Amino acid sequence: MTKGTETRQAVLDEAARVASRVGLGGLTIGSLAASTQLSKSGLFAHFQSKESLQLQLLDHARARFVDLVVRPALAAPRGEPRVRELFRRWLAWDADALPGGCLFVAASAEFDAQPGPVRDRLARDQRDWLDTIAQVFRTGVAEGHFHPGADPEQFAHDLHGAMLAYHHASRLLADPDAAARATRAFEALLLAARRPTT
Amino acid sequence: MTKGTETRQAVLDEAARVASRVGLGGLTIGSLAASTQLSKSGLFAHFQSKESLQLQLLDHARARFVDLVVRPALAAPRGEPRVRELFRRWLAWDADALPGGCLFVAASAEFDAQPGPVRDRLARDQRDWLDTIAQVFRTGVAEGHFHPGADPEQFAHDLHGAMLAYHHASRLLADPDAAARATRAFEALLLAARRPTT
Fold it and tell me: Going by C-beta distance under 8 Å and a sequence separation of 6 or more, which residues neighbour residue B125?
């Protein structure tokens, strides 16, 4: 990595930490300059505008999510073991990767009614992720771990709901049972996936 | 209602519409003055500070949620019919009550890592609501509609997850199947609640 690339990565790491707590809208080049001890003009040279910073931050967070969750989950054996690894790593991502939890949860709620490039990027990333979950679930149908009538897109939607409820319970409510509840929700989804649909 | 109370209610209605789109943090007394065509000094006299405005707005939204969702749901027959009415009205609240969807979804994700009175108020309101859902579910156990071993707090947590997934799918992804998916998730939770826990 060149010096410029290193600096850029370090600034985006710090930006991700800040935005996970205060949202993308609360992240300013000025506050980022203060927390990274770089000059505002230097940061403007790297990121041009607040919107450009937000988009680069989303790409940075996406790459980190792929490294920490998607790629290792896809390395697990097909079917239920892969679904379990995906859930385990996703939960750990929201719990540990950033001080304010999953950046995408906060950003999605923040930008869902604000049309523009940031909302478009978020929607694309979230659709990709739901597609990935559904695809991993399908390997479980193919392996005979789940019922052939189970709906992979519905499973992806429901698992996403379980993770959003976990984020809410652990972050806003500081519920000590949040991870246990998320795990019970996950096991109930797997149980339902093994049964014939009614 | 006095003229002052009427003005205050009208301003809070407009504040709720704005905050549902841009978040509590994006709501300023200045922008509210512009959209209500009232003077900034007049609004300051009503609300004192941005934080005070945010807290009064949360109380206003809570009262509206009680009117539109909680009270009518509690008027339905005990047990499963009451759970169904609660779900139906909650879904309609997120779909229709405000232009940006449920204010509490956006505010929770926005403030969950920002300690202070707004976060405390939100956490209290959300705990009250989860307790209400669990209590309504318990009437279904008492009426023999749900299995005695079913966990009311887990049901409340899971139903909340289904509503968060609905909000995300309908708002960020503009998914035309969002309501159908939420309904399937709800029916699966009811089905599981009728079965013995494993």
Answer: B58, B62, B104
Rounded CA-CA distance B64/B166 in Å is 20
The alpha carbon of residue A91 and the mean position of all alpha carbons in its chain are separated, in whole angstroms, by: 10
Residue type, A29: I
DSSP at A94: I
Show which of residues 16-35 on chain A sit within 8 Å of chain B, judged by CB atoms: 20-23, 25-26
The string of pLDDT tens digits covering residues B49-84 is: 999 999 999 999 999 999 999 999 999 999 999 999
Residue of chain B whose Cα is closest to the Cα of A193: B188
Phi, psi angles (nearest 5°) of residue A49: -150, 165
Report phi then psi at A99, rounded to 5.
Answer: -65, -30
- Residue-wise pLDDT for B80-136, tens only, equals 999 999 999 999 999 999 999 999 999 999 999 999 999 999 999 999 999 999 999
Q: What is the ipTM of this complex?
A: 0.95
Tokens standing for A17? 């930490």
CA distance A33 to A56: 16
Sequence letter at residue A70: V
Question: Positive or negative CA dihedral for A195, A93, B156, B197?
Answer: positive
Give dist(CA B132, CA B127) in Å, integer.
Answer: 9
Query: Residues A39, A48: contact at Cβ < 8 Å?
Result: no
- B168–A160 C-beta distance less than 8 A: yes
Residues in chain A: 198
Cα–chain-centroid distance for residue A89? Answer: 10
> Which of B106, B127, B160 is nearest residue A109 as measured by Cβ atoms?
B106
Residues 117-146 on A with a CB inside 8 Å of B are: 119, 122-123, 126-127
Indicate yes or no: CB of A123 within 8 angstroms of CB of B172: yes
Mutation test of the interface with chain B: which of A173, A186, A197, choosing the one with the most B Cβ atoms within 10 A?
A173
* CB-CB under 8 Å, A23 with B173: no
B106 chain-A contacts, CB cut-off 8 A: 109-110, 112
